[in-house]
């Protein structure tokens, strides 16, 4: 369980807070989506939930973060490493830059956790296979395309098997197939008890993946509830969030055609 | 106007990875072209051939009929501006204004002209209020828009956008769409790589589909998202827009965009199409 209580945050060097009064509980095995316009605070929320803000980048935090009942305020940054993983928006920022192959890159996390070599290799192979990138194992991380790099970064997180995982737009650079593989991997991870917080603009991805969705607007949680209800909320567009295709299309086609129920079925068929 | 042609272009990276094979492609001045295809299918490699950032290892690239093999990158930069996928590989300045003025200055424009071009470009992408900000204080989506402004300010006849909607919210996507349409209206060529099929179908007149380093489809959104083309799309792990799928389920033919679907439905209910 990852819990944020009354969180407010301002970046170092800035007087104005970018997050206000954030209360959020992420249960084990729960898959929660975070949506909101650009600059609404999604990335900042990810940094706080993973301990990087203020742990690594400074800034002023009010409120508290606890993980599995432990108040993280007095914990050193490395204490976060086994409890919560984070995937950045830009995979190029995340690749370590110290490995010569994708295999080593994905193995780096488990190795640094001090796991035995056999388990490190097993986890690395499993993570690569899950995301369909076994054939990239020998490639140089710096020479990957944007989408390939994003899959490698996610594989690096999977191989660490964190108890909680925070992902900032994990599929931004992925093609539909990569997006589908990541969605399956996240679902699988949640089923093993990992709590996941996923910030995304792609509401089509969150639709059907998340049990719960949170909407951020100007640094505040303005809606938090069951995914089906939140993603169909008529206020989404006013908050700068694109409703999922099936919702948008359903509205555009409502009342049209000679057989409205056939149209509704055609929109909802998966 | 600059027309571009690739003739039998192949490309192998120094580490031996083959990225392109036998690519033939002609893009006329003022065309709006989207390039789609799975990750690693060669899209980014292909567009880097257009301004000489990469040189083909086979075949040739022509600008207005002339082979660019001997043309310096600096000269090609006046014709083709590329906005990279990753803004952090492009941004270098400590101020937004300096970042955007750099392009026109390096192309030899006077300081006041460069400043004017930068102001206009920042206005277009909605960052006019942030001229004195440090680019690295901006969020990812704004850094993407900043790199777009930097290329717009260079006023190149050809603009290449590598995944321009990544990280943009609904308003950001609409803004990018507007910028593309304005460029087209001004007669400039726009070539964009994207995984966002709805953005592609709604914005571009022509869609080039890449698979395994080759062009496997090339046509209008109506043609590329038509049911007959779905197996080809699936071969490069793409799927048509929801509007296209719904149109086929309802027997309305190819309706790649929501607007075309609504249109086809109203024609059907008014009896123009069979029900």
Protein model, in words:
The complex is a heterodimer of chains A (270) and B (275). Chain A has twelve helices and ten strands. Chain A has helices at 42-49, 52-55, 78-81, 91-94, 102-112, 117-130, 146-158, 176-191, 203-206, 227-231, 245-253, 260-268; strands at residues 2-10, 19-26, 31-36, 60-67, 70-71, 84-87, 164-168, 195-199, 212-217, 220-226. A six-stranded mixed β-sheet of chain A has the order 6-7-8-3-9-10, with helices on both faces. In chain A, helix 5 (102-112) crosses helix 6. The longest helix of chain A has 16 residues, at 176-191. Chain A is globular, with a radius of gyration of 19 Å. The two termini of chain A are 33 Å apart. Chain B contains eleven helices and ten strands. In chain B, a hairpin with a 2-residue loop joins strand 9 and strand 10. The longest helix of chain B has 16 residues, at 170-185. In chain B, 38% of the residues lie in helices and 21% in strands. By secondary structure, chain B is of the alpha/beta class. In chain B, the strands form two sheets. In chain B, strands 6-7-8-3-9-10 form a six-stranded mixed β-sheet, with helices on both faces. A four-stranded antiparallel β-sheet of chain B has the order 2-1-4-5, covered by helices on one side. In chain B, helix 4 (111-125) crosses helix 5 (140-152). The chains are: A alpha/beta (270), B alpha/beta (275).
Low confidence ranges of chain B: none
Sheet/helix structural class of chain A = alpha/beta
**Order of secondary-structure elements of chain A:** EEEHHEEHEHHHHEHEHEEHHH
Work out the strand percent of chain A: 15-25%
- SSE run of chain B: EEEHEEHEHHHEHEHEEHHHH
> Into which percentage range does the β-strand content of chain B fall?
15-25%
Globally, the shape of chain B reads globular
What is the overall pLDDT average of chain A? 91
């Amino acid at each position: 369980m990852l819990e944020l209580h009354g969180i407010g945050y301002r970046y170092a060097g800035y007087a104005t807070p970018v997050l206000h009064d954030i209360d959020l509980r992420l249960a084990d095995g729960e898959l929660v989506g975070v949506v909101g316009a650009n600059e609404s605070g999604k990335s900042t929320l990810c940094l706080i939930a993973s301990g990087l803000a203020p742990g690594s980048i400074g800034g002023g935090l009010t409120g508290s973060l606890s993980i599995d009942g432990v108040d993280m305020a007095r914990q050193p940054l490395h204490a976060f490493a086994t409890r919560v993983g984070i995937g950045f928006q830009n995979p190029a920022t995340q690749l370590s830059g110290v490995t010569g192959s994708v295999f080593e890159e994905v193995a780096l996390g488990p190795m640094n956790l001090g796991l035995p070599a056999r388990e490190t290799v097993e986890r690395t192979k499993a993570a690569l296979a899950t995301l369909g990138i076994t054939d990239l194992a020998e490639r140089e991380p710096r020479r990957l395309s944007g989408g390939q790099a994003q899959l490698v970064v996610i594989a690096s997180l999977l191989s660490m098997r964190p108890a909680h995982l925070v992902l900032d737009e994990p599929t931004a650079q992925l093609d539909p197939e990569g997006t589908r593989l990541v969605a399956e991997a996240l679902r699988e991870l949640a089923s093993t008890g990992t709590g996941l917080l996923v910030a995304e603009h792609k509401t089509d991805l969150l639709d059907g993946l998340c049990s719960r969705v949170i909407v951020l607007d100007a640094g505040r949680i303005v809606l938090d509830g069951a995914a089906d209800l939140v993603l169909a909320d008529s206020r989404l567009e006013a908050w700068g969030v694109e409703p999922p295709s099936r919702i948008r299309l359903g509205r555009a086609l409502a009342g049209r055609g000679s057989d409205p129920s056939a149209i509704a079925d055609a929109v909802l068929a998966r | 106007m600059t027309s571009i042609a690739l003739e039998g272009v192949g490309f192998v990276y120094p580490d031996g990875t083959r990225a392109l094979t036998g690519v033939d492609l002609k893009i006329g001045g003022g065309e709006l072209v989207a390039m789609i295809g799975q990750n690693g299918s060669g899209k980014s490699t292909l567009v880097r051939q257009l301004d000489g950032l990469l040189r083909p290892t086979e075949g040739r690239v022509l600008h207005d009929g002339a082979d660019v093999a001997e043309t310096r990158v600096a000269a090609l930069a006046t014709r083709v501006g590329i906005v990279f996928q990753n803004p952090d590989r492009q941004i270098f300045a400590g101020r937004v204004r300096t970042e955007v003025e750099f392009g026109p200055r390096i192309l030899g424009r006077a300081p006041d002209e460069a400043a004017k071009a930068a102001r206009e470009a920042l206005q277009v992408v909605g960052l006019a209020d942030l001229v004195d900000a440090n680019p690295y204080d901006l969020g990812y989506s704004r850094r993407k828009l900043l790199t777009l402004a930097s290329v717009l300010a260079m006023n190149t006849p050809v603009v290449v956008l590598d995944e321009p909607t990544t990280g943009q919210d609904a308003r950001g996507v609409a803004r990018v769409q507007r910028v593309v349409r304005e460029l087209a209206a001004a007669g400039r060529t726009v070539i964009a790589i994207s995984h966002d099929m709805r953005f592609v179908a709604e914005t571009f007149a022509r869609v080039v589909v890449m698979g395994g380093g080759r062009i496997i489809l090339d046509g209008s959104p109506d043609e590329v998202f038509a049911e007959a083309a779905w197996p080809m799309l699936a071969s490069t792990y793409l799927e048509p827009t929801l509007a296209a799928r719904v149109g086929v389920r309802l027997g309305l033919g190819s309706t790649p965009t929501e607007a075309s679907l609504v249109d086809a439905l109203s024609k059907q209910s008014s009896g123009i199409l069979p029900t």
